[in-house]
Amino acid sequence: MSGGALIALASDEIVMDKHAVLGPVDPQLGDPRGGAMPAASILRVVQEKGRERVRDETLIKADIAELTRDRLGEEKARELARIMASGTWTHDYPLTVKRLRELGINVNTEVPREVYQLMSLYPQPAQARPSVEFVPAPYTPTRPRQASR
Which of 9, 19, 136, 138 has the greatest number of beta carbons closer than 10 A? Predict the structure, then answer.
């Protein structure tokens, strides 16, 4: 959920099922040596050292970190980053279409039928612990059978 949110927030529009959710993000960008670095710190390094004094990988990560800010504007991006990454919600909190729209994120729930057809070709394996699962639309829960007498 959170990784998908990080990618989706860099887009002009998020297309998702009306029952789908995203999750709060922990704005970390992967480090090739393992671990991760906070996106805000990467931007600060580039700002303080200057573009010509940092490695190419740092510049690429800074570019990724700036995407949301450029699209939303400085003030809105800071507020969104604060809400999404400051522990307002737990890491597994489901951000619904309604909540995302309240945050000012452009969400389109008109998912093409072909997307559902493609997703049905990749069923998710059963797991021992609960997780977020894709449920093909339309979904109709089955009722437990009545015991016969």
Answer: 9
Secondary structure letter of residue 52 according to DSSP: G
The type of residue at 136 is P
pTM of the predicted model, to two decimals?
0.56
Check if the beta carbon of residue 100 is closer than 8 Å to that of residue 107: yes
The per-residue pLDDT for range 88-125, each reduced to its tens digit, is 777 678 889 999 999 888 999 999 999 999 988 988 77
Tokens of 138: 């339309």
What is the number of other CB atoms lying within 10 angstroms of the CB of residue 25? Answer: 23
Phi, psi of 133 (to 5 degrees): -135, 140
**Phi first, then psi: what are they for 99, rounded to 5°?**
-65, -40
